[in-house]
Specification:
CATH topology of the largest domain: FAD/NAD(P)-binding domain
CATH class of the largest domain: Alpha Beta
Distance between the termini: 23 Å
Radius of gyration: 25 Å
Helix content: 25-40%
Structural class: alpha+beta
Strand order of the largest sheet: 16-15-12-13-14-11-17
Number of strands: 19
Largest sheet: 7 strands, antiparallel
CATH architecture of the largest domain: 3-Layer(bba) Sandwich
Strand content: 15-25%
CATH superfamily of the largest domain: FAD/NAD(P)-binding domain
Length: about 400
């Protein structure tokens, strides 16, 4: 939709083909229906939240920045607000308002929107040694000539919204390499059984550190959630981004439940609780250190009997509690599937796409934008901004292409 807007406002005749019954279907579910559409940070800070191929985005973010996106929505009649972590939302907390703004602008600019129209094939012809776009064949067999085509089909995440990998097929069929694809920003299944006993329990202000072999991949403080399969929540989604595409067998997620307190201070605190515990069990004595539901599974993970008398807890046992509070290791087995993933890692190889136009280096008149590209970021509005920025640049560039074709 953003590509169509920028292409049309540059003077081109634009047709948007949408295989769903309505446009913006994926926008409706982003940010739990509130649509965290960007992050109010500068370009350099933005790049730090893109773990792979961030330099490819330099031109797109320069052309259409987070500030530009926020101003664009305001001007399109969608007031915005900034929340914790500089996350930007529509003031109404309704993702539908972002979609309405895009649809209204397309209508104002005369974009022809064809819903229920699925593209089947991109036609390319070779003229004077140059491969050029010639048109689009729809699933119903109709062929329509175009001077330029923008592929903005999303990835494989949330296939119920229409993201079923069509863009990757279009890319391969027109000669573009596609990197390995895997789910990202998704939950993580664990080897250990105890996390599943805590299903629904959320931990706030904890730190997780992800190791791949001996290499530290990330270390962040925030919120996580225990689930029936393992762990999820904001910190875990970010962890999945650094694990996505790789082998999780040699990876470890280390949980620090008390990041602001030293192990020695915790050792002292455990000792105090045990001394005050009197005839209590170990679990009842140290319960102030944990969410209630976590006490017994945690002590078992420490190798301790939760029901043993607190008075019998040895110095080694107190040390085990203190050290495990600072470093409770969890072993990833696999990432949750594409159907639960927020984004797809991998995509059209950026070496085949010009970062200054989003145009193909292999086929004149062909452009790529958004999640179909091999670029992805952490949570916080960054991925939608990537979609808007690359879409805007592709739209502007495609309009120029159509005038010179």
């Amino acid at each position: 939709m953003m590509a169509a807007v920028f292409c049309a406002q540059s003077g081109a005749d634009v047709c948007l083909f949408e295989k769903n019954e309505k446009t913006g279907k994926k926008l409706y579910i982003t940010g739990k229906g509130r649509c965290n559409f960007t992050n109010a940070c500068n370009r350099e800070e933005f790049m730090l939240h893109v773990p792979r191929n961030s330099r490819f985005l330099y031109s797109a973010l320069s052309f259409f920045s987070p500030d530009d996106m926020m101003a664009w929505l305001e001007n399109a009649g969608c007031p915005i607000k900034i929340e914790r972590g500089r996350r930007a939302f529509p003031r109404s907390d309704k993702a539908s308002d972002v979609t309405k703004a895009l649809c209204s602008e397309m209508a104002r600019l005369g974009v022809s929107v064809r819903t229920g129209s699925e593209a089947a094939d991109i036609s390319v012809a070779c003229e004077d040694g140059v491969r050029r776009v010639r048109g689009l064949t729809l699933k119903n067999g109709a062929f329509l000539p175009f001077d330029a085509i923008i592929v903005a089909t999303g990835g494989l995440s949330y296939p119920s919204t229409g993201s079923t990998g069509d863009g990757y097929r279009f890319a391969r069929e027109t000669g573009h390499p596609v990197t390995d694809l895997s789910p990202s920003l998704t939950g993580i299944e664990l080897k250990e059984a105890w996390p599943s006993q805590l299903q629904g329990l959320s931990l706030k202000n904890v730190r997780i550190t992800v190791y791949a072999g001996r290499k530290k991949r990330m270390s962040e403080t925030g919120e996580m959630l225990f689930t029936h399969y393992g762990v999820s929540g904001p910190l875990i989604l970010e962890a999945s981004s650094v694990l996505s595409g790789g082998n999780t067998e040699d990876s470890v997620i280390s949980l620090d439940m008390k990041p602001a307190v030293s192990e020695e201070k915790l050792m002292s605190d455990v000792g105090d609780l045990i001394r005050l515990g009197g005839a209590k069990t170990v679990a009842n004595a140290v319960m102030p250190l944990f969410p209630r539901r976590m006490t017994e599974p945690f002590l078992i993970a420490c190798g301790l009997d939760p029901h043993a008398p607190a008075s019998q807890l040895s110095s080694a046992g107190r040390r085990a509690i203190a050290s495990t509070l600072k470093k409770l290791d969890m072993t990833p087995v696999s990432l949750r599937p594409f159907g639960e993933a927020i984004i797809t890692r991998g995509g059209v190889d950026i070496r085949s796409v010009s970062p200054s136009t989003m145009g193909s280096r292999l086929v004149s008149g062909l452009y790529f934008a958004g999640e179909v590209l091999d670029v992805d970021a952490f949570t916080g509005g960054y991925n939608l901004q990537i979609a808007f920025s690359t879409g805007a640049l592709a739209g502007k560039s495609a309009a120029l292409q159509s005038f010179t074709a």
